[in-house]
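tool_call: predict_structure(chain=1)
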Amino acid sequence: SRPKASQIGALASPQSQEIESRDVLIKNLQELEEKYKDKEVPKPAHWGGYILKPQIVEFWQGGEARLHDRIIYKKTNKNSWKIIRLAP
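tool_result:
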């Protein structure tokens, strides 16, 4: 879902590895921009991800004298959430 330039930048950079100079990154970027000019950019092989499907989400905001706001959203079915206020 990233912009194409960011996708190519992710491929061009050997993240967290030592490189000789910034020129290495620029050269990699230019080569990959040409290679994927009219093609979809593949996700780097080392990337992963997670799909989160929360059932309960709590929002907490600190308040004076410990009177914090605590709001829970609790999943009730596929498209609905129940909103519950908790005492701090």
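agent: DSSP finds two helices and three strands in the chain. Proceeding to next step.
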